[in-house]
Structures are given as C-alpha cells and as structure tokens.
Automatic annotation (TrEMBL):
It holds the Pfam family ASTER. GO terms for biological process: protein insertion into ER membrane. The keyword Membrane applies. Keywords: Membrane, Transmembrane, Transmembrane helix. This is Protein Asterix. It comes from the Eukaryota.
Length: 116
C-alpha cells in the first residue's frame, strides 16, 4: 500500500474560538417570570397565572451556574410566586366572597349615626 501524505497546510489552520454567550434571553425570561405572577394576582386572570407558571418553570430549569450567581432571587422563588398567583386567582371558586349588609350609602360615605 502506498503511504498517503498529509495534504493539509499548517499555515491555513484557524484555531477554535469559543463564541460569546448571550445574556439577554435569561434576563428577559427572569423578568417575565417575576412580573407575570404579579399581573395575574392584580388582574385575577387565570390565563396569565398559567403563563406565569410556564415561564417561571422554564427560567428555573434553564438557569445556569452564572445566572444563579448573578440573579437576585433564586429560580424556585419565581415558581412559588407563580403558584401563589394561581391560588389567588382560583380562590373565589373555593371560598366565594360573602355579600356584606346592603345599606343605602356607598363604601366611601360616612358611617350612619348610632341609635341611642
């Protein structure tokens, strides 16, 4: 068998350079996972609550060691907040609000005088 000569030229070799990591996607994801539960609680919207659970689970499972070191809150905190938003939005189904005594005035009027 004939020996084959290496035809690669050493002057054309390009060394490997590791690409720069993008940090914008994790910041946006963590922002969504912390603001969506608050929006679901304030607006009492169940769909926003379920979206908050999905985003918070995604950001918690996708966080790296660098993200854990630089983030101000741990990933499981955002999952807990999103679950709390679901509890708040579904709470009226299990504990319906009671109707208070109906008086002629509104809640901003002065209280009626106490009879003697």
């Amino acid at each position: 068998m004939a020996s084959k000569k290496d035809m690669r030229r050493p002057d054309l070799v390009i060394p490997y350079q590791e690409p720069v990591a993008k940090g914008d996607s994790s910041d946006f994801s963590s922002t969504l996972s912390s603001t969506l539960p608050m929006a679901a609680i304030f607006m009492r919207n169940r769909y926003i609550g379920w979206a908050a659970v999905a985003f918070s689970l995604q950001s918690w499972l996708g966080e790296s060691e660098e993200t854990k070191k630089t983030s101000s809150t741990p990933g499981y905190f955002s999952v807990g907040m999103s679950l709390m938003s679901l509890i708040v939005t579904y709470l009226p189904l299990f504990l319906p609000p009671t109707a208070g005594p109906q008086r002629g005035g509104s809640a901003t009027d002065a209280a009626p005088p106490v009879p003697a």
